[in-house]
Amino acid sequence: MGVTAPRVVVIGATEGLRIARAGRLAAHYGVPRLPAVDVLIRRQPLPADGYVIDGAPQLLDRVARVGGLLPALAFADLVVHLREAGRTEGEDAGRILRYYEARGALAGFRPDAPDGDLILAIDAARRGRTAADPPRWP
Fold this sequence. Notes:
By secondary structure, the chain is of the alpha/beta class. The protein has helices at residues 15-29, 36-40, 57-65, 71-75, 91-102, 115-126; strands spanning 7-12, 33-35, 51-55, 78-82, 106-109. Helix 3 (57-65) crosses helix 5 (91-102). The chain is globular. Residues 129-138 have low confidence and may be disordered.
């Protein structure tokens, strides 16, 4: 049985860097890149064959305040947090990030980390190995 396409959420960093990174990952895996706002607010359905969603940490704060989770986060193989040095997320976003870290579904990277590092983490998550590998923080 083959490995299915990944379900990945990319958050953090500046909008341009995050969108570019999500686009490259989506192209690598041959899946669509979706803005989180389309999934959350416009209710765009999630593709069954995998996706890469990009969203700002502020969106996590907004979702947490209304008591829900972004559906893509609930089903994601991996949440990739592009964490910039010296920047902290809001309290609500931090709580959500800790939840995914505890599940072993969060990997932190510097925004300038090579795409190959993220691809290795995503592939490991798809094989169910991220729980054994600690998240990587800058």
